[in-house]
Amino acid sequence: MWAYEKKLQYPVNIKNPNPKLAQIIISQLGGPDGELAASLRYLNQRYTAPYAQIKGLLTDIGTEELAHLEMVSAILYQLTKGLTPEEIKASGFDTYFVDHTTGIYPVAASGTPFTAAYFQSKGDIITDLTEDLAAEQKARTTYDNIIRLTDDPDVLDPIKFLREREIVHFQRFGEGLRIAQDNLNAKNFYAFNPEFDTNCKAR
Amino acid sequence: MSGNNILRAIQMYDFYLYELDLYLDTHPTDTNALALFQKYNEARRSAYETYTEKYGPITAKDFNGGNCFNWVDDPWPWERSAN
Fold it and tell me: How much is the pTM?
């Protein structure tokens, strides 16, 4: 189970609303490489995952992604607080506003609603960890692009924190993949699937 | 220290601990990391106790009696004033 802690993982305190920027950053909530896809990816993959360390890793990183989801949502909330209809129209935020007012709803920057098709749970640890490594880099690139599109230090501070976490997760998943391979047949990692072929022993 | 400053200290300790947690998932017998985990866990515990006694619950289970359930009190974490 999970227990909620009434605090963000890293502070978000944005002085100046900016609906145009919110419409870009929302991709890290409900977009193809966003935090919702990340948390669901790892938290779904873990059930059939082999090897204790990898179960721990998927649980812990999946949980941290939920905290990132909350941080991105807090950024969006603060960037869209106290807007006038004129500001909404002028910024182009009106296309989101008409459907959601300033409620937080998971969509990509293009407006496409979140879909589970953004991630995979393949039931094969080499495949899943390889997807996870790519997912962390895709999220890192998205944060890099957000950093290119704003110079507001209040936004950059939490965004840089989130970007850095992608790099740490990539490192840990790489170690997870090495642990999986160490447990498999050294001559052929693909000889059997440890999540399915349960009667096959390693090496 | 003000409530927000103590909360900042807890966030800092939690960050150290989360970072060590992920590292220990893939290096479960690293004695240096295990010792650091213990160290920051103790520091966190003392900051956590100070905060929850003086300023309110961080989890609902920190509620320690009284005639009002202060778990629901504003500000919630997404507000600027909580940060």
Answer: 0.96
